[in-house]
Every structure is written in C-alpha cells, then in structure tokens.
Hints:
The chain is mostly helical. It has one domain (3-198). 77% of the residues lie in helices and 0% in strands.
Amino acid sequence: MYQLFNPENKFWNFVGKITDVACMSILWALVSLPVFTIGAATTAFYDFSLHQVNDREGKILKSFFTSFKAHFGRGTLLWLIQLGGLAFFALDLWAAWNFYLTKGGSLGIGLMGFCGCAALIFLSCTMYVYPVLATFDFGLKKLIHDSFIMAMGNLHVTITFFVMTALVCVLIYYVSGLFFFWIGLYIFFSSYFITGVFLKYVRDPEEEGKEQLAE
C-alpha cells in the first residue's frame, strides 16, 4: 500500500509525465496559432518529450522556449517545405485520379500508385525530421537525408507511426476540442520509439547530439 502512494513509483512518475504533456500541449497550441511557427513549436515539444524518455526533462516553459528559439529558423523552414510538399502531392494525387477517371486503364492505376507511394515516403520523412532536428545539430540537407534513412530503415516504427497518426485523427474527429492533447500524446509516445531508433545510430543521443549519424 505504501508503494501505491509513493510519489517516486512508476505509476506516479507516468502520471507526472502525462500531466507535463498536457501542459506542453496547451503551450504548443498557443505558440502554433500563427501557423508558420508550428515547425519550431513541434521541434521544441519533441525536445522536451525526448528528454522525458530519459527522465531528463527540465521546467516546461524554460525548456520549450529555449528550444523554440534555438530551432526557430530550421524548424520554420522545414515546416514550409512540409506544407509545400503536402500541397504538391495532394495536387499530384488529384491529377492522377482525374487521369484515371478520364483515361482509365493500367496507366492511370500505375500513375496513382506511383504518386501514392511517393506521398507515403514524404510523409514518413516528416515523422522523423522534427525529432532529428531537436536532437542533432545538423544542416537542413542532412536533416532531410537522415530522416529519410531512418524512415526507410525502420519500417516497423514508421508503420507504427502511421497507425498512431490514424488513431490521433479518429480522436480529433470525435473529440476535436482536445486536438492539441491528442497531438501531444502522439509526440510523447512516439518519442519512445524515436529514442530506440536513435540508439541504432549513436551510443547516446543525449550526449552525442552534435555528432554525425553513423553511415
């Protein structure tokens, strides 16, 4: 019974982390209101959450805004690239669908399949790029390159992220008022998987964040 009410046990430690995630989710939503800040805000959230995995998180406000400021430039640029990519693939899929409706045949199916696969690869990279930015001091080109390597080299994790994303979309649809919390939970739980992926490339991501990933 004593262990149940011991604030140091695993249960209360987990409750504390979820409480921090809830607070961080609200902060993320507020800072993301200008829209163009979503990339830097997401990077800052991942920075805090990845530290949570190793019980190294600091104070919420200080940790968030320190990381937000440090990653604002690259985080914002990555977000703009992501938006452009999403628009590009959405138009491609729409054009491929219309080609199939008008022309039909195997060419139309092949075109839709090609566009769909390219879009999935692009989305896979976006699932890794912000935690990579939060952890490693890389240039933009290497951030994108290593995000692609991780996404393709850890397909079981990537597929898990797609399943988690689908679950978050369902939760947002039914309880849209808590959309920021569902996104926060995704970032929190995905950080455990991301940490495992990082350990395949460096001995300790927290200590070697500025080193290059192993080729």
